[in-house]
């Protein structure tokens, strides 16, 4: 991280993080607290998502936590109105859940985002809204690496609604001059990600399985490719995007820029944990239809605008992740216990 970057711009700023007990939101909260921001976290603690009180145990006295839902307009409006920066992370994050319960996905990912934007529009001094978008907005790549000029053809409801959320953001920028930026995230992994379910955060899920000596189940031959990006790099991208002038009204991909074969990622996890049995099974149901074969992004646009660059290669990132969960896995398998200290 370049020391010359003006991180001090976050000092004293009022920051609202929706989904703030989750993986990315809580990791960002740690960084914002360290940079001297006044941090409020909003999280509805919905199942089966990644909220975990343990995620903020080190900063719980430095942040304000509000348990509440982004679908609740009356709650969201004053919170957004008081903020200088809103990191909008709260989301229905499961691709398969979005297919089985598309209305839920639309209510959280579209209406929830509209609530944040409407509150920002109505506020006397509109905050900058930083949106967590997804690589899923692009769909199956027609050329690689995928960049911000690539067409958007999402293959699931989640991708469609994330795209809608981003389009709302850009419309509010265009029509109301609302300061906004959208970061389309690739596969994020690392400490503080949930470890209780495999429907997202697959690298972490495999690590949980390896640590508990449960089989690691790979659909098909594992030849699909992904762009895995370490959490600290993602947090840095959010901070930079929030305080840089060149990001206003823009969309950026955030990834490592490295195309990794899925099964290679799994082998790295097994290596870092020191054990793990890999089992190949056919894709279940309609899963193959929404699965994307290959994916890697170019982050040249974000680098040019903010000086950001992913600093962790996959091996180092997986080793750091394994180190964390060798100590704290149990805190992620039982959130009731983890909440008590
Ligand atoms: N982790 C990834 O690989 C990845 C990739 C692309 C995009 N994203 C996006 O990043 C954001 C954060 O994801 P994450 O990985 O930290 O997931 P996470 O599940 O760890 O965190 C999401 C949090 O949002 C909360 N939440 C869900 N619905 C809510 C609602 N209606 N009101 C208030 N809170 C609500 C959940 O309780 C949870 O704590 C999401 O917007 C997600 O779509 C993540």
Describe this protein's structure.
There is one protein chain. The chain is an alpha/beta fold. It has a single domain (10-339), classed as NAD(P)-binding Rossmann-like Domain (Rossmann fold, 3-Layer(aba) Sandwich), CATH 3.40.50.720. 41% of the residues lie in helices and 16% in strands. The chain has helices spanning 23-34, 73-81, 95-100, 102-122, 157-176, 202-211, 231-243, 262-273, 287-290, 300-306, 314-333, 335-339, and strands at residues 14-18, 38-43, 63-67, 85-88, 128-134, 180-185, 187-189, 216-219, 225-226, 228-230, 250-254, 260-261, 278-281. The chain has a seven-stranded parallel sheet, sandwiched between helices. The longest helix has 21 residues, at 102-122. Mean pLDDT is 95; it is low at 337-341. It binds nicotinamide-adenine-dinucleotide (NAD). The site of nicotinamide-adenine-dinucleotide has 31 residues, from helix 1, strand 2, helix 4, strand 5 and strand 7.
Compact overview of the structure:
By secondary structure, the chain is of the alpha/beta class. The protein has twelve helices and 13 strands.
